[in-house]
Write a structure and sequence with these properties.
Shape: globular
Distance between the termini: 52 Å
Radius of gyration: 35 Å
Number of strands: 28
Strand content: 5-15%
Largest sheet: 8 strands, mixed
Structural class: alpha+beta
């Protein structure tokens, strides 16, 4: 990536680039290199392996080059190319091209090829990662840039569309907060990767490792002897004034050599090309999961290019992460049980939490899933309390323990700090690690490095001034319009103040704030970040880039992820970095100088390992979400089927001229409101039905509507993201789009509604198929299936009550029974079995009693009987409450006489009261069974009192700090 001084040659519009490349292949051979491999030729010419291979094989066919299948060499026929020239010139002219060939391999950059690269414009005044100031392509980019240039902008845009589709199919999101609302934003990935050569990366990797080691020692000192403060190397105000310094966590650390298990830093390159650190991340470094997802997608979008570029793999980094966590267990525990603590689905990076938990094989838990007992941390699993030895926290430290830290937090675990203090659990990173993210530490790190490491800091920070000293404060106040001011006393990281964005009054107000409390502020140089090529609408343009690098403890030092998460600004003129929201991400390719050896294989040929009991690793909260996922999916499907039946009748009888048809139509609408629970929506006549039907379908704010149910379904899926197969997100992406399409605020919503409902039912059936064919029959699946069976049974009972209990005229009842069979997905079965017009008795037989009809009530009860018996519970002889209730319903149904139930009541001929009594009793028992499942397996933890240091303390009561 070192620029050269000579300029690129001027080329005419008639220039044939492929001829130039073919000649470059020939010139790659010389006296010192008479034989070359394909990789040698690609490296010496700057071509991709695929391009070099095509040129070499063409020259083989033409007789100019020979090959043994692996190595290539020139043949005598190559002399024909120079015979005419040699016969007409003297010795000096003969020697000149050979001298040029000898010089060419030593050039550090490759001339930019024609195409979009020729018009690429890097932002002026800064450093561009791909193109040197003289316009030549840097070595690390030469081969890949050539291949991307050959694709052209149109093809790059197609690859970008492929990437967008893959990201949506994988359900990759980043939650954005705005105006008091949290919404999931699609993850954005630019298709052009950021490239770093292996030589340059080795230097960056070494410097990041040194910085991680330094911050590890700094963390141990600040929560230990605090020698750096006592010796005046770091001002006490910088540490004590930062909210990340948690006094309760004094002397609370991890066993072993390292305190900082994971670390990340944002790297930028200044105009001179120097790599600097913009920010350090030690609390719960995020982004590594997104980097892995970016790699997955980019390698699919550019399979050949990725393979030929010899990119360092990311998998070894995550194996090191797993090893580091396993080694961090409390003393005396050889095989620690690890869990990952998340704030929940509304967290900004929740996708990453679930993604990494699944990738690493750890249960994803929330604070409510954990409890402290007997000096240890426990997971409330389906089978009882299960010990947690290592907790990977993605919750900010301040929120981790409402007992000793933030008293109103519901994200943490009461007593967690005390358990960590006693060594009962290892929290990674330690709860107080946020102090290392303090920007006030940056000016003092060079002295800290000399003191703790005895060596200079290799990776400098962006120039930072702490306003606590008069000289630095004067400099900051004099240059406010040019600097980024960062309060070090704020808990939020989004408090950077760009001086150039303030008017004079705003700068005066900021000046007064700094003068009033100078020790609480730092200011940083506004570095012009380096630029990297990004795909715009019709061109490739340079945009500012920040690279987040990741390190994880390993073998007494740190393993650095090769590359990291590159983020680019939304616009080329962006000054500074505004965070992920609104920007793009990039995959980062560290190019190996030779094929990377396969090492650290996932397959373990050692002693066999016993499988873990899924019930012991599954929080009750997850089981509850799966239970409701099954219920919401069935509720949505039943609603769609009934709405489609209503639409069919609406097309025939909406005019109201056919009295039986109008009666059937209104009766079906009443059935829909009861089934969905939207009984507040009324339609007294056919002309009022259209408005009511749209409200039941599309109003997301109305509990029970189809839109509301789909929203609830998607929320439940998000809550169990780590439990679902990757293909599930194909269906989820479709359901999200279909939910948007249910918005009926258009000219003629009924013109598009049938198609949208068809798409929804197809997605719901796909989701059911995935659950049936892709999920292990573990307790999670059992709860989901139990929820589905219960809901389908209750909805069928509700539907039969609404449509069959009222006695109607022959015409209306005939239409109603047919619609009931359609909504119950049994019309074809009924016609095949009975071959006659509908009768109440036979309809009841098929929908209630037929054990082989997968849509009947009897079938649901059979499946439910088997399912509830498989739910985890303590060993006991007698039936559980839910088993007893389901058995009671099943017995009640099996002794029912449909012939008698089909008859109108003698006391009220307008109703079938015997049928109604049976259905009400069944409905009540099924509701009690659902309550019993929730009560037995999903009961909420009581907020009791904790015994700490021999005294009882209520949740939220302050606890004296152990820090002197």
């Amino acid at each position: 990536m070192t620029p050269v001084d000579d300029e690129a040659p001027r080329r005419s519009t008639e220039f044939v680039q492929s001829l130039e490349r073919g000649l470059a292949v020939i010139r790659a051979f010389d006296a010192e290199h008479p034989e070359l491999t394909l990789s040698d030729v690609a490296r010496k010419t700057g071509l991709t392996r695929a391009a070099a291979r095509r040129f070499l094989l063409t020259l083989v066919d033409l007789g100019y080059i020979r090959t043994d299948g692996r190595r290539f060499a020139l043949r005598p026929r190559i002399l024909e190319l120079g015979y005419a020239y040699l016969s007409s010139v003297g010795l000096p002219e003969v020697a000149q091209p050979h001298m040029e060939a000898l010089v060419a391999p030593s050039m550090t950059t490759t001339a930019a090829p024609a195409g979009w690269l020729s018009s690429y414009q890097a932002p002026p005044g800064g450093y561009d990662e791909m193109v040197a100031r003289d316009g030549r392509v840097r070595d690390a980019w030469a081969g890949v840039a050539t291949a991307l240039d050959e694709m052209g902008v149109a093809e790059l845009r197609q690859r970008h569309r492929d990437a967008v589709r893959l990201l949506r199919n994988d359900g990759v999101t980043y939650n954005v907060y705005g105006h008091g609302v949290t919404y999931a934003s699609d993850w954005s990935l630019d298709p052009i990767p950021l490239l770093i050569g292996s030589g340059e990366w080795a230097a960056i990797e070494h410097a990041v490792t040194q910085r991680a080691e330094l911050l590890d020692l700094l963390l141990a000192d600040l929560y230990g002897p605090r020698e750096l403060i006592r010796k005046g190397i770091i001002p006490v105000e910088v540490v004590a004034g930062h909210p990340g310094f948690l006094r309760s966590c004094d002397r609370v650390g991890l066993p072993g050599e390292r305190q900082l298990l994971s670390y990340a830093c944002d790297l930028v390159r200044d105009p001179s090309g120097q790599v600097r650190v913009l920010s350090d991340f030690a609390q719960a470094p995020s982004g590594s999961g997104y980097a892995l997802e970016n790699r997955m997608v980019t390698s699919r979008v550019f399979p050949s290019l990725y393979r030929e570029a010899q990119v360092h793999r990311l998998a070894p980094f995550f194996r090191s992460m797993r090893s580091a966590l396993n080694a961090a267990g409390p003393e005396g525990i050889d095989d620690p049980r690890v869990a990952m603590l998340t704030p929940g689905p509304f967290s900004e990076t929740y996708f990453e939490h679930a993604y990494l938990a699944t990738y690493l094989g750890y249960p994803l838990v929330e604070g409510s899933d954990l409890t402290v007992k007997e000096g240890r941390l426990w997971l409330r699993s389906l089978t009882g309390l299960e010990r947690v030895d290592v907790l990977v926290r993605r919750v900010d430290g301040w929120y981790c323990d409402p007992l000793e830290l933030k008293s109103d937090s519901r994200l943490g675990v009461p007593g967690l700090v005390e358990v960590a203090r006693r060594g009962g659990v290892s929290v990674a990173n330690p709860i107080g690690a946020a102090i290392l993210e303090n920007p006030g530490l940056l000016p003092f790190l060079p002295r800290v490095a000399e003191h703790l490491l005895g060596q200079p800091l290799e990776l400098p920070s962006v120039t930072t001034w702490w306003c606590g000293t008069p000289a630095e404060r004067s400099h900051v106040l004099a240059h406010l319009s040019e600097l980024v001011v960062r309060p070090i006393g704020q808990r939020e990281s989004r408090d950077d103040i760009h001086g150039w964005d303030l008017d004079e009054a705003g700068r005066d107000a900021l000046r007064r704030r700094i003068e009033a409390k100078p020790m609480a502020f730092v200011a940083q140089e506004a570095v012009a970040f380096s630029s990297v090529p990004c795909l715009a609408s019709d061109r490739v343009e340079g945009r500012p880039v920040v690279l987040r690098s990741f390190a994880v403890a390993r073998d007494g030092s740190y393993n650095v992820m090769p590359g990291g998460l590159a983020r680019v600004a939304a616009l080329p003129e962006e000054r500074g970095w505004a965070g992920l929201a609104g920007g793009l991400s990039k995959d980062t390719w560290v190019l190996a100088s030779e094929p990377e050896p396969q090492s650290g294989l996932w397959l373990n040929r050692g002693p066999g390992l016993a499988a873990l009991d899924p019930a012991k690793a599954m929080p009750a909260r997850v089981a509850e979400n799966l239970f409701w996922l099954g219920r919401y999916a069935e509720r949505a499907e039943a609603t769609v089927r009934l709405v489609r039946a209503i639409l069919d009748r609406r097309n025939d009888f909406a005019s109201g001229l056919n009295e039986p048809g109008a009666e059937c139509l209104l009766g079906l609408f009443v059935a829909l409101t009861r089934l969905s629970g939207t009984t507040d929506v009324e339609a007294a006549a056919s002309d009022e039905l259209d408005h009511g039907l749209l409200a039941v379908v599309s109003d997301p704010g109305r509990t029970g509507s189809l839109a509301y149910t789909l929203q609830s379904l998607l929320s439940a899926i998000q809550g169990v993201r780590d439990q679902m197969s990757a293909d599930t997100w194909l269906v989820v992406a479709d359901l999200e789009r279909q939910l948007e399409a249910l918005d009926t605020r258009r000219v003629d919503p009924y013109a598009t509604l049938p198609a949208v409902l068809g798409d929804v039912i197809r997605s719901l059936l796909a989701l059911q198929g995935l659950a049936s064919e892709s999920m292990v029959r573990d307790p999670g699946w059992q709860f989901m299936d139990a929820g589905r069976r219960l809901e389908r049974a209750m909805l069928l009972v509700s539907l039969v009550r609404s449509t069959v209990v009222p006695v109607r005229g022959v015409g209306a009842e005939s239409l109603m029974l047919e619609s009931l069979l359609v909504a119950g997905e049994s019309i074809i079965t009924y016609r095949r079995l009975y071959r006659s017009r509908a009768q109440v008795e036979t309809v009841l037989d098929l929908l209630l009693l037929e054990p082989d009809n997968p849509r009947s009530l009897a079938y649901q009860l059979d499946q439910l009987t088997e399912g509830v018996s498989a739910l985890p519970r303590p060993s006991q002889v007698r039936l559980s409450d839910e088993e007893r209730l389901v058995l009671e319903v099943s017995t009640m149904l099996r002794v029912a006489d449909t012939a008698g139930l089909a008859q109108p009541s003698k006391s009220d001929p307008a109703l079938r009261l015997s049928l109604d009594d049976l259905l009400v009793a069944i409905e009540t028992l099924l509701a009690h069974a659902a309550d019993a499942i929730e009560r037995s397996h999903f009961s909420r933890p009581e907020e009791g009192r904790l015994l700490v240091a021999g005294r009882s303390i209520s949740l939220g009561e302050p606890l004296a700090s152990s820090m002197p």
